[in-house]
Amino acid sequence: MRLTSKDLGFVGVGRMGANMARHLSETGFRITAVFDPNADAAQALAGELGARVCTSLAEVSRLAQTILTVVTDDKAQLQIFSNRKDNLLKAAQGRTFINCATVAPATHEKVAKLCESAGAASLEACMASSITQARTGTLYLMCGGEKRVFLKVRPVLEALSDHGKLLRLIGGTGRAAQVKALVNMVMNINTAGLAEGLALGEALGLDLTMLREVFSQTGAASRVLVTDGEDMVNRDHSCFFSGAHAAKDSAIPLTLAKTQKLRLPLAEATLAQFQRMVAAGLGALDKSGIAELTFRGRGPATLKTKRKAATRPAPARSKGR
Amino acid sequence: MRLTSKDLGFVGVGRMGANMARHLSETGFRITAVFDPNADAAQALAGELGARVCTSLAEVSRLAQTILTVVTDDKAQLQIFSNRKDNLLKAAQGRTFINCATVAPATHEKVAKLCESAGAASLEACMASSITQARTGTLYLMCGGEKRVFLKVRPVLEALSDHGKLLRLIGGTGRAAQVKALVNMVMNINTAGLAEGLALGEALGLDLTMLREVFSQTGAASRVLVTDGEDMVNRDHSCFFSGAHAAKDSAIPLTLAKTQKLRLPLAEATLAQFQRMVAAGLGALDKSGIAELTFRGRGPATLKTKRKAATRPAPARSKGR
Question: What pTM does this model have?
Answer without folding.
Answer: 0.88
